[in-house]
Design goal:
Layout: H1 2-16, H2 26-29, H3 33-55, E1 60-62, E2 66-70, E3 78-81, E4 84-97, E5 106-109, E6 112-123, E7 129-137, E8 142-147, E9 169-171, E10 186-193, E11 196-201, H4 205-208, E12 218-221, E13 230-233, E14 239-241, E15 244-245, E16 253-256, E17 263-265, E18 268-269, E19 286-289, E20 296-298, E21 301-305, E22 310-315, E23 317-324, E24 327-333, E25 343-347, E26 354-365, H5 369-376, H6 378-384, E27 397-404, E28 415-417, E29 427-429, E30 432-436, E31 441-443, E32 449-451, E33 454-458, E34 463-468, E35 473-474, E36 478-483, E37 486-490, H7 494-498, E38 504-511, E39 524-530, E40 533-537, E41 540-545, E42 547-553, E43 556-558, H8 571-576, E44 578-583, E45 586-591, E46 594-596, E47 604-608, E48 613-617
Parallel strand pairs: 1-4, 2-4, 3-5, 4-6, 5-13, 6-14, 6-15, 13-16, 14-17, 15-18, 16-19, 17-20, 18-21, 19-22, 20-29, 21-30, 22-31, 29-32, 30-33, 31-34, 32-36, 33-37, 34-38, 36-39, 37-40, 38-41, 39-42, 40-43, 41-44, 42-45, 43-46, 44-47, 45-48
Antiparallel strand pairs: 7-8, 7-12, 8-11, 9-12, 10-11, 22-35, 23-24, 23-28, 24-27, 25-26, 25-28, 26-27
Length: 619
C-alpha cells in the first residue's frame, strides 16, 4: 500500500512541477521526489526525537525549522496521546500531508496542558480542486470547467458517492471573492479530457438565479470527506498559539469531548500568499462538539471556509424508551457525557414544546445488545416517519440509562437538553472573521462572550445562535454577551436573502422541524446584544426569537435589507422586513438603537411579531 501511494504521489509531483502552478508558490511548485523524500526522512527523525522527549518527561520540545512530510507509517501524523504539561515550539516549521488522506495531521487525544506554538500547516497535494468556468449551458442545466494548473483532478467516484459532499461555490473572476449564489452541491462531474469537466449542480443555482455566475468565473470543488489540520479529542487546557493553516482536507481546528478550556490565540486560517487558491477549508474553520468548557478564541483570523467559520455546540440526546416512571434510556452521540447531578430539560422533537425537567441522580452506560439494537433503530424510524433529522451521523452512539430525582413523562424521539458539555463559557474576542460561504459564528451554551470582533463578507448570518432539531445541536444559548462587534456585508447570498432563518447579521432563535422559529417556546435566555455596528445586511440587522430576557440596546444598523427583497423570497421575510425583528420572546428591552439607510421593502425600523410580550419600547 505504501509503495502504491508513493508511486501515485511521484506521478503527481511530476504533474505539479510541469508548467504553470496556481496552487503553490514557485519555490514549492518545483519540489522533486527527492525533496519529498528528504522531508519524509526529516519527519522520521522528528517523531523519534519527540517520542523520546515525551517518555523522558520533558517540559519543552523544539521542532527544528524546515518542511516535514507525513505520509505513511511510522510517520502518518503528529500524534499525541495522554501527554501532559508540555510546550512545543515549532518556529520555522511547516507540516505537510497529502490532502486526500483521511487522517488528522496534528492529533491530540486525552492530552492536558499542552501548548503548540508557531506551527505552519499546509497540504501537498490539496484535498480540493478548482477550475475556470468555460461554458454555461442553461438548456442542459450544466456547465463546463477547466481545472487550474497545480490543482488535483477530482477523485471519482469517491467525491460524489454520497450527496452533499461537494458544495458548488463560485468565485468572481476579477475580485476572487465568493459569488452570492444559494447553497447548492455538485451532483455530477463528467470528465471531458485535458483536465476539463462537465458539471451538474443539484438545484441548478447558476441558472435559477441567472447573471450571478458568468463564464470566466471559478468553480471550487471542496470535497468534505477528508480530515482536519488539528484535532483535539477528550483534551483540556490545550493552547494553540500563532498556528497558521494554509490548507486543510476538511476543517482547520476541531475539538471533541473532554473538559475543554482550550485556547486559540493569534491563529490564522488564510489563503497561502503567492498562490491563486480561493479556499482554505472544505468545511468549517473551527468546530467544537460536546466540550464541557468552551474555548477562548482570541486575536485570530479565520477566512475562506466553505461552511461556518466557527461552530460551538453540545448535542441533544434522543429518548429511546421510558423504562420506569423516573427512568429513561437515552442515546447520545459524538462523545460521552457525565449527566449525573445535572438538571436536564425535555422537549418534543419537531415542535420543541417543553416537557419539563429533572435532575439525573444516576447515569449508567447500557450494554445489553438487545436494548442497544432497539435504540439503533431510532434514525431509520424517524426518517420513515418524516421526522427530518441527521440521526446519529452514521457514528457510534452512547446509550445511557438515566434515573431522575422525580417522575418524568417522555416518549420515544423526545429530546434531552444538557448543558454539561455545550461549550459553556466560550469567549470569542478581538478576532477578524471574513469571507465564509455560510455563517460567521454559530454558538450555543451558557455564559458565552462574543465581543470586539470584526465579521465581514459572510454569505449568510454573521452570528447565529440557535438550537435545532435536524443536527440535534444544542443547547439553547443563555447568559450571552454580544457586544461591540462590527458586521459588514453579511447575509449577501441568495440563500441568506431568500430564506428567513438563514440570514440576519445577528440571529438568535430555536429552530422547529420546519426551520421556522418554534412557537410558544423560549429556549434562549438572557441575551445581551449591545453596542454592535451592522453595515450592509442582506436581510435583518437583528432577528431575535424564542428568548426570555435580554437587551437589544445601543446598536447601530446601517443598511438592513440593503437591496429590494427578491420576489421569490420566503413570505416571512417579505411580511416582517425590519432592521430589528422580535418574535416568540418576552422580557426583552429594545432601546437606543440607531437605524438608517434601510432598504425599500423594510416595513418599520423595529417590528414585534407573534408571541412577543413585554418587549420594547423602541418602535
Amino acid at each position: 500500500m505504501m509503495k502504491k501511494t508513493l508511486l501515485m504521489l511521484a506521478a503527481l509531483v511530476l504533474a505539479l512541477t510541469s508548467g504553470a502552478n496556481d496552487a503553490y508558490p514557485p519555490e514549492i511548485a518545483k519540489w522533486t521526489e527527492a525533496d519529498l523524500a528528504a522531508q519524509r526522512t526529516r519527519t522520521v527523525k522528528l517523531m523519534r526525537d519527540f517520542q523520546t522527549a515525551v517518555k523522558a518527561g520533558a517540559g519543552k520540545f523544539v521542532i527544528p525549522p524546515g518542511d516535514y512530510r507525513f505520509d505513511e507509517q511510522p510517520t502518518r501524523n503528529f500524534f499525541l496521546q495522554d501527554v501532559r504539561d508540555l510546550e512545543i515550539d515549532a518556529s520555522g516549521a511547516t507540516f505537510w500531508v497529502d490532502g486526500r488522506r483521511r487522517i488528522d495531521l496534528v492529533s491530540m487525544r486525552r492530552c492536558r496542558n499542552v501548548k503548540l506554538s508557531n506551527l505552519t500547516v499546509d497540504y501537498y497535494p490539496l484535498g480540493h480542486s478548482q477550475g475556470r468556468v468555460t461554458k454555461l449551458d442553461p438548456a442542459a442545466k450544466s456547465l463546463e470547467i477547466e481545472l487550474a494548473p497545480g490543482f488535483p483532478e477530482p477523485v471519482l467516484p469517491l467525491w460524489l458517492e454520497r450527496p452533499g459532499q461537494v458544495k458548488a461555490i463560485f468565485f468572481d473572476e476579477k475580485t476572487t471573492r465568493m459569488l452570492p449564489t444559494r447553497l447548492d452541491w455538485v451532483s455530477r462531474l463528467e470528465p471531458l479530457g485535458s483536465r476539463r469537466y462537465r458539471a451538474e449542480i443539484r438545484n441548478n443555482s447558476p441558472f435559477v438565479d441567472p447573471g450571478i455566475v458568468k463564464e470566466g468565473d471559478t468553480l471550487v470543488l471542496p470535497y468534505r470527506g477528508y480530515r482536519q489540520a488539528v484535532a483535539l479529542v477528550d483534551c483540556s487546557g490545550i493552547t494553540l498559539e500563532n498556528v497558521t493553516v494554509y490548507g486543510s482536507g476538511q476543517m482547520a481546528f476541531t475539538e471533541e469531548g473532554g473538559e475543554g478550556g482550550n485556547a486559540y490565540r493569534r491563529c490564522r486560517v488564510v489563503r497561502r500568499p503567492g498562490t491563486k487558491r480561493l479556499i482554505v477549508c472544505s468545511a468549517d474553520i473551527f468546530h467544537s462538539t460536546k466540550v464541557a468548557k468552551g474555548p477562548l478564541i482570541e486575536e485570530c483570523e479565520f477566512s475562506w471556509g466553505c461552511d461556518d467559520l466557527i461552530n460551538i455546540h453540545g448535542m441533544f440526546s434522543l429518548v429511546s424508551r421510558q423504562t420506569a416512571p423516573d427512568e429513561v434510556l437515552a442515546a447520545s452521540i459524538i462523545a460521552p457525557e457525565k449527566f449525573e447531578g445535572e438538571k436536564l430539560r425535555f422537549y418534543t422533537f419537531g415542535s420543541l414544546a417543553p416537557k419539563g425537567s429533572a435532575t439525573v441522580v444516576r447515569a449508567v452506560l447500557e450494554k445489553d445488545p438487545a436494548v442497544r439494537a432497539d435504540a439503533a433503530k431510532l434514525p431509520g424510524e424517524m426518517e420513515a416517519a418524516g421526522m427530518r433529522s441527521a440521526g446519529f451521523y452514521g457514528r457510534e452512539f452512547f446509550l445511557y440509562r438515566l434515573k431522575f430525582d422525580a417522575p418524568v413523562k417522555l416518549g420515544r424521539y423526545d429530546l434531552l437538553e444538557s448543558f454539561g458539555h455545550s461549550g459553556n463559557g466560550a469567549r470569542i474576542v478581538n478576532n477578524y472573521f471574513h469571507d465564509g460561504f455560510t455563517r460567521g459564528i454559530l454558538c450555543r451554551g451558557d455564559g458565552v462572550t462574543i465581543e470586539n470582533n470584526r465579521i465581514e463578507r459572510m454569505m449568510m448570518s454573521g452570528l447565529y445562535m440557535a438550537s435545532e432539531n435536524y443536527f440535534l445541536e444544542g443547547a439553547g444559548p443563555s447568559n450571552v454577551s454580544i457586544r461591540n462587534n462590527e458586521f459588514r456585508e453579511v447575509c449577501m447570498s441568495m440563500q441568506g436573502r431568500k430564506h428567513h432563518l438563514e440570514g440576519a447579521a445577528i440571529l438568535v432563535y430555536s429552530a422547529a422541524a420546519d426551520w421556522h422559529a418554534a412557537r410558544g417556546v423560549q429556549l434562549c435566555r438572557d441575551i445581551a446584544i449591545e453596542n454592535n455596528r451592522i453595515v450592509t445586511a442582506g436581510t435583518f440587522g437583528i432577528f431575535l426569537a424564542n428568548t426570555d430576557g435580554g437587551r437589544i440596546v445601543g446598536n447601530t444598523i446601517d443598511g438592513a435589507f440593503f437591496e429590494a427583497i427578491p420576489p421569490d423570497a420566503d413570505r416571512l421575510i417579505r411580511a416582517n422586513a425590519a432592521a430589528i425583528y422580535l418574535t416568540e420572546s418576552k422580557n426583552v428591552e429594545v432601546s437606543g438603537n440607531r437605524i438608517s439607510n434601510s432598504g425599500p421593502d423594510v416595513k418599520a425600523p423595529v417590528l414585534y411579531g407573534p408571541g412577543t410580550m413585554d418587549c420594547g419600547p423602541q418602535k
